[in-house]
Amino acid sequence: MRTILAFAIALVCTLPVIAREDASGALLQIVFQKGHDFANFDDAIPAGQTRGYSLHVRKGQTIKMKVVAPENGVVFSLYAPGAAVWREDYKSPMVVEGTALVSRHTANDIWTIAAPSTGDYVILFEQAHDTSSASFGGAVIVR
Question: pTM of whole model > 0.85?
Answer without folding.
Answer: no
